[in-house]
Structures are given as C-alpha cells and as structure tokens.
C-alpha cells in the first residue's frame, strides 16, 4: 500500500497580502473615480444636447411634410427650457400657443444643467426655414461647469441646426 504524504503548506492569502491588495484597489479607485464622474457628466450633456437636436430636427421635418408651421417651445412660458419642451403643430399659424395646437412630442426636463434659449420658441415654416429674422441659440450648461461643459445649439435661418462645445468661463 502506498502512503500519501500530507502537505503541511497552507493555501490561500495571508492577512498581509489581503490588506496590500485592498490598499492598491483603494488607491486605483481614488485615482479613477474623478475621471469616471467627468465621463458620466459629459455623457449626460451629450444625451441632453441630442434630445434638443432631435426636437429641432423633428420640427423641421414635420413642417416640410405637413405644410404647416411647427413650433418648438419650452413647456413653461419663457426662455428657460430646462423643465422640458414640446414640438407643436400650429394649425392656424398664428404663432400663439392655444388649444388648436397639437402636441406632436414632449421632451422631459433635463437634470444637473441649465437650458436657456435666446428666444421663447423656434418656429419652422413649411419651407423648413425658421420664421425669425435672426438665428436662434439654445445653451446647455452643466451645474458644476468645468472644462467643456457648455453646449451651444445653433438654429440657422435655413432651419439647419448644429451644436458646439464651449469651455466654461
């Protein structure tokens, strides 16, 4: 019969090895967490910018397809778009938000940022052009503005839209 030798060596981690691993993990987390927070903030701003661009593209396309004025305006009257905004069909083309208007789509409020327009609406004509005589801008700014945390959405007279990043003051 063969006799098996028992191995007297312990397997696993010692307390010292475990403490060293936890310390290295803590240091890596402390270094990487601020970058991760900035990445989340940047992605949120991009998503919110894309939501405004979606509304403007939808309004332009619908104005051309339906042959009526389509308005994009904040839910709350004024130039503060942060509580949300709507795309509305202005059936009688009177430029007034009234019961005759049809809401085509509503957009939710944004978080952790301000969204301010230089006008209280953007109205597209059936030609796809906007009704004002000057271009409109809508500015999205993060509450804790650092780096390129400002997005400026421009609506040209032709109705085309673009967005650009700006550095916080």
Brief characterization of the structure:
This protein is α+β, with helices and mostly antiparallel strands and 169 residues long. It is built from 1 helix and 8 strands; from the N terminus they run H-E-E-E-E-E-E-E-E.
Topology:
Blueprint (H helix, E strand, L loop, with lengths): L14 H52 L2 E6 L10 E6 L11 E6 L5 E5 L4 E3 L11 E7 L7 E6 L5 E6 L3
Antiparallel strand pairs: 1-2, 1-5, 2-3, 4-6, 6-7, 7-8
Number of strands: 8
Helix content: 25-40%
Characterize the main sheet.
4 strands, antiparallel
Order of helices and strands: HEEEEEEEE
Lateral arrangement of strands in the main beta sheet: 3-2-1-5
Global geometry: elongated
The number of helical runs is: 1
The figure for the number of domains is 1
Quick check: average pLDDT? 88
Give the CATH architecture: 3-Layer(bab) Sandwich
| CATH class category name | Alpha Beta
Q: Quickly give the structural class.
A: alpha+beta
CATH topology: minor pseudopilin epsh fold
Residue windows where pLDDT falls under 50 for at least 5 positions: none
Rg to the nearest angstrom?
27 Å
What is the straight-line distance between the termini? 84 Å
């Amino acid at each position: 019969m063969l006799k098996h030798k028992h191995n007297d060596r312990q397997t696993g981690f010692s307390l010292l090895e475990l403490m060293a691993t936890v310390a290295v993990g803590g240091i890596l987390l402390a270094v990487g967490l601020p970058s991760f927070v900035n990445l989340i903030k940047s992605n949120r701003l991009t998503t919110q910018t894309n939501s405004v661009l979606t509304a403007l593209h939808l309004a332009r396309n619908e104005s051309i397809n339906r042959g009526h004025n389509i308005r994009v305006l904040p839910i709350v009257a004024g130039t503060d778009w942060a509580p949300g905004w709507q795309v509305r069909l202005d059936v009688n083309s009177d430029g007034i938000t009234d019961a005759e208007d049809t809401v085509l789509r509503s957009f939710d409020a944004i978080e952790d940022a301000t969204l301010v327009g230089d006008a209280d609406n953007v109205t597209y004509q059936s030609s796809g052009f906007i009704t004002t005589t000057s271009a409109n801008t809508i500015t999205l700014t993060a509450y804790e503005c650092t780096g390129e945390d400002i997005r400026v959405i421009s609506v040209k007279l032709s109705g085309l839209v673009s967005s650009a990043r700006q550095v916080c003051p």
